[in-house]
Amino acid sequence: MTAPAARERAIREPGIDPWAIEAERAAAAAGFRRPDLRPVPRAQLVALGVLAALRAVGLVLIADAVGRGIGGLAAGGLDAAAIRAVLVAGLAGALLRAGAEWATSVAARRIASDVKRDLRARLWRRIAAGDVEGGGTAILAADGLDDLDDYYVQSLPALIAAAVVPLIVGLRILGADWLSAAVVVLTVPLVPLFMILIGRHTQQRTDAALSALTRLADHLAELARGLPVLVGLGRVEEQTRALDGIQGAYRARTQETLRWAFLSALALELIATISVAIVAVFLGLRLLDGTMELEPALLALILAPECYAALREVGTAFHASQDGLAALERAKALLARPLARDIRSRGRAEPAPTSAPSPLPTAGESADDRTRMPESSCSRRNPLPPVRLENVAVRYAGRDRPVIEGLNAELSGIVSVAGPSGSGKSTLLAALTGTLPADAEVTGTITGADGAGWAPQAARAFAATPRAELALHGAPDPEAALAELGLAHVAEAAIPELSPGELRRLAVARALARVDAGAQLLLLDEPTAHLDRAAAERVRAAILRRAAHATVVLASHEPETLALATMTVPVGAAAAPATAPVSMSHPTTETGAVTRNNRDMHEAAPAAPAGPADSAPAGPADSAPAGPADGPADRVTLASLIRPHLAAWAGAVGLGVIATGLGLALTAVSGWLIVRASVEEYIMYLLVAIVGVRAFGIGRSVGRYAERLMTHSAAFRTVDDLRLRLWRAIAARGAGSRRLLEGGAPVDYLVTLSDDLRDQLPRVIAPLAVGVLVILGASVTTWFVVPHLALLVLLVLAAAAAVAAALAIASERGAGRARVAARSEIVRGTSALASASADLRGNGASEAALAELDAAAARLAHAERRAAWAAGLGGAVVTAATSILACTVALLSPASPAEQVSVIALLALAVLEPIAGLVTAAHRLPALREVVRRLAPVLRPAPSAPWGDGTLAEPVASIALDDVAVQYPGTSRPAVTDVSGRAARGRWLVLDGPSGSGKSTILSAIMGALPVAHGEVRADEAPLPSLDERAWRSRVAWCPQDAYVFDSTLRGNLLLASAHDDAPDDEALHDALALAGLGALLDALPDGLATRVGAGGSALSGGERQRLAVARALLARADVILLDEPTAHLDAPTAAAMMADVRGATADRVVVLVSHRADDRRPDDAVVQLGSVRE
């Protein structure tokens, strides 16, 4: 598939992600992915080459020491000079090898950290610029780039070692025995040949697995963001099954890839084993007929496997690093994309910061003082330069007609953008802030719009608390800015726990802070939506206070807010009223498309109410409050996570022990065979050993292949079960902890921490068990062969393993925890950046947010380097200990037969790999425990409403609230109390009250998502606790405030309302959209129901998104409909028409409505007035 064809398919088909397209393109263009070393400085590559050479020299010295010691022992004994030569060569070789391996791991980790840090910084800047979108891109920047570790830490050093080690080792073999060197030279090329042949096939499988991973990542990100909608529609279990299916497909794809990758490793090991066997056969035959000495034969036997091992490690590391290579290519492809077009041009200099406006009057001031606006007349300073729009046109992808076309205007004063819902008001504001979607087609010029403060319709925050968010946006005094809008009491609250009204005021406060810091343009999209009258008056007063310091452009459907304007710019249908048709292709004047309202800028600001207007309901203090565990069953540990798959893990450990044991037997018997051949006259006495060597070699390779497959299968199944548990736990806690649903927390739990656990488990569980058993097995073998060395071997190996593991754990405990914390911080920060990029960009706060992410990346790099020092130090201890033991065995057993001593010496060299694996696993253990610790609070049982097993035989006819009080889990007091009311068919129940008074909380209690602390909720006189939970949830549909619109089609979003086997047809979907007032929009779309709505519904206006959510709720097969601010973002005529249609469509259902609009209620509705908020 060509690149243009791939891009066309991405546009035409739903669900196609750029990652997948790029993977297919890369696979089609080149069947084999060549490593790209360009990001690495040449000096670091040279350093790795020097270290590889030093390691090779160390190997040669160790082989010389072992060969000389055993050869001298076989010849009758070692004199003082020989002993001294063995000690010098052995110690020097052990120190060189250990030091070079340690330095290589540290240097490679530094390279990986530097490359990841650079790529992350560049990707973050593209995300912040709005050039790349999608949950997959955020996960690539946050989590996907960590796959580069395997590439730079394993593949790159192995590649360099493959070019250096065989050359040095081969030259030493040539100096000892030319025939053995010739065999090595003839057989070594088989390793890269098979590596390339199998690698070509593996590459295609890897690309397919990456596509599955991309779908899983995007699906998880969408599920996390839209979880409240899924809960409200009762679709959690259905989406759980979908999630299980997607991760099952990913597991199958990945395991197929692993089978081919491990088969490649199997083939390479078999080739190396057979080749070394050929060398051994030649050596043995020549030793039998006396044409070769034992010492050079031992040296060739010890060094020959190193020639193949260097190349084999390249193949193994290369296959292990395919995800990293793919991540690198995806990152480069995203960075190579063209920048999104911004039609704004700088037309004014950045002014000096203005003095902050005076705080609002307090309750003790006079009425005259409260209504008198501080001096802010435009006459007190030079008039602000206007904002000019010339021939501005915007057309969204998938739309035939532009939303805005040929708009010319000169904006000054307080400007209202007028038009019905969907006419392009938010589009115009997005054009002024440069935050239009990357795929939108934009033409024209905007001058003077740089340096703005912006409050979008659907605000997203980057920081954790309101105070931190305002500081990020440059507020001179965050406390005063919060107090001005009645938010002082939530200054340190978690932003995800704010009510929609509080979040709206925080967005306005951010924009006002930008003006206080010097911005001369204030852009506000629905600044008073979701607000009660008192809170709205605060916002309007604050807007007027900035009128002298900035041009204000606002869009609103509320008459009181529109009345602030001194100029009106109509868009959409309002741009050409029937009474005065005006072409938008000519400059506007006061009598044309732009009209000035009869309002003086000097008019006093509205009175500010005394006291706080709002307060967030008390919420959990943590993202996943766990509280004290109720008992041992509630404790979440590593053992409890793997217990359901204990048989698979036990099998993996057993296969690992068998494969490692066969490898040790292969090495030990090979040594015995060579030494015995030097004194044996007849080959028939050696045939059993020869056959054993061949069997051990094949068995080791096959056993290792089976162990790898079973280990990774067990890890995938463990993490898949864990991810489903996490998903259900987050869904269960969602209503009680908004923080758990926002800020990247779900992605952190479901993707980053879960994947981290999946990667760590195979590298910890099996290696720990295998390493311990190998130490015991080597000691027992020594007791049988050379009994007096058994205790020494046990002490040396156990002490080396214990000291190395203790060093690794001690140094990793702090570094590992810091690394896990930094990774989580990066994941959450990247998710917040992707979500809030438009808010940050529009407010000029992107650099401040990027600086925080850069600091987190620096902390991660520092933690990774500390971890590399620790891991390398532990490995160096084991390498030195086993190498010195191998070199000194002959010196410690002068009276023992040489063939028996050779078994122990070569066994000491062979146990290096499993014991080093044990140390590496111990090094990873603190990080693994930290991952489990972070997951534990979410996995512990969450407080939930009690349920019974009752059912309702008939459709629900009424809902009653009897003195209800609701308290969030983990808090000390109720969020709302003393609520009583009744809703019935044909008679709606309306919940009214100030922002934050608990209206949405009552809806959660009616759904059964929050337990009732006091009183009772009844359905047809049946208390909710007596009903079956699933049966009740199927009777209720909830349309939340700012309901999430999934990155799919109109059809896909609507079909979420019903079960898959009960999906409505297209006619029903058309009817639902018509009832919600979207019939005209649907008719104008060329693709109809198949039209993509963009990430978060970015291709729709705020009002269109809200109406789509209402249509989705109407499609649900529910008896009870809960509508939370359904007319927010709608103009009055559209809201009235939609509510009339909704009332007609729900005449046979029970409806509970939350709304600040008095026009949404009817005289016969039951109204419950909730009290003031609690602080």
From TrEMBL:
<keyword id="KW-0067">ATP-binding</keyword>
<dbReference type="InterPro" id="IPR014223">
    <property type="entry name" value="ABC_CydC/D"/>
</dbReference>
<feature type="domain" description="ABC transporter">
    <location>
        <begin position="959"/>
        <end position="1170"/>
    </location>
</feature>
<dbReference type="GO" id="GO:0016887">
    <property type="term" value="F:ATP hydrolysis activity"/>
</dbReference>
<keyword id="KW-0812">Transmembrane</keyword>
<keyword id="KW-1133">Transmembrane helix</keyword>
<keyword id="KW-0547">Nucleotide-binding</keyword>
<dbReference type="InterPro" id="IPR017871">
    <property type="entry name" value="ABC_transporter-like_CS"/>
</dbReference>
<dbReference type="InterPro" id="IPR011527">
    <property type="entry name" value="ABC1_TM_dom"/>
</dbReference>
<feature type="region of interest" description="Disordered">
    <location>
        <begin position="604"/>
        <end position="631"/>
    </location>
</feature>
<feature type="transmembrane region" description="Helical">
    <location>
        <begin position="904"/>
        <end position="925"/>
    </location>
</feature>
<dbReference type="InterPro" id="IPR003439">
    <property type="entry name" value="ABC_transporter-like_ATP-bd"/>
</dbReference>
<dbReference type="GO" id="GO:0045454">
    <property type="term" value="P:cell redox homeostasis"/>
</dbReference>
<dbReference type="Pfam" id="PF00005">
    <property type="entry name" value="ABC_tran"/>
</dbReference>
<feature type="transmembrane region" description="Helical">
    <location>
        <begin position="764"/>
        <end position="785"/>
    </location>
</feature>
<feature type="transmembrane region" description="Helical">
    <location>
        <begin position="867"/>
        <end position="892"/>
    </location>
</feature>
<feature type="domain" description="ABC transmembrane type-1">
    <location>
        <begin position="650"/>
        <end position="927"/>
    </location>
</feature>
<feature type="region of interest" description="Disordered">
    <location>
        <begin position="344"/>
        <end position="384"/>
    </location>
</feature>
<dbReference type="InterPro" id="IPR003593">
    <property type="entry name" value="AAA+_ATPase"/>
</dbReference>
<feature type="transmembrane region" description="Helical">
    <location>
        <begin position="646"/>
        <end position="670"/>
    </location>
</feature>
<feature type="transmembrane region" description="Helical">
    <location>
        <begin position="73"/>
        <end position="96"/>
    </location>
</feature>
<feature type="domain" description="ABC transmembrane type-1">
    <location>
        <begin position="45"/>
        <end position="323"/>
    </location>
</feature>
<dbReference type="GO" id="GO:0005524">
    <property type="term" value="F:ATP binding"/>
</dbReference>
<feature type="domain" description="ABC transporter">
    <location>
        <begin position="387"/>
        <end position="598"/>
    </location>
</feature>
<feature type="transmembrane region" description="Helical">
    <location>
        <begin position="178"/>
        <end position="198"/>
    </location>
</feature>
<dbReference type="GO" id="GO:0034775">
    <property type="term" value="P:glutathione transmembrane transport"/>
</dbReference>
<dbReference type="Pfam" id="PF00664">
    <property type="entry name" value="ABC_membrane"/>
</dbReference>
<dbReference type="InterPro" id="IPR039421">
    <property type="entry name" value="Type_1_exporter"/>
</dbReference>
<keyword id="KW-0472">Membrane</keyword>
<dbReference type="GO" id="GO:0005886">
    <property type="term" value="C:plasma membrane"/>
</dbReference>
<protein>
    <submittedName>
        <fullName>Glutathione/cysteine ABC transporter permease/ATPase</fullName>
    </submittedName>
</protein>
<dbReference type="InterPro" id="IPR036640">
    <property type="entry name" value="ABC1_TM_sf"/>
</dbReference>
<feature type="transmembrane region" description="Helical">
    <location>
        <begin position="791"/>
        <end position="810"/>
    </location>
</feature>
<dbReference type="GO" id="GO:0140359">
    <property type="term" value="F:ABC-type transporter activity"/>
</dbReference>
<feature type="transmembrane region" description="Helical">
    <location>
        <begin position="45"/>
        <end position="66"/>
    </location>
</feature>
<feature type="transmembrane region" description="Helical">
    <location>
        <begin position="260"/>
        <end position="285"/>
    </location>
</feature>
<dbReference type="InterPro" id="IPR027417">
    <property type="entry name" value="P-loop_NTPase"/>
</dbReference>
<feature type="transmembrane region" description="Helical">
    <location>
        <begin position="151"/>
        <end position="171"/>
    </location>
</feature>
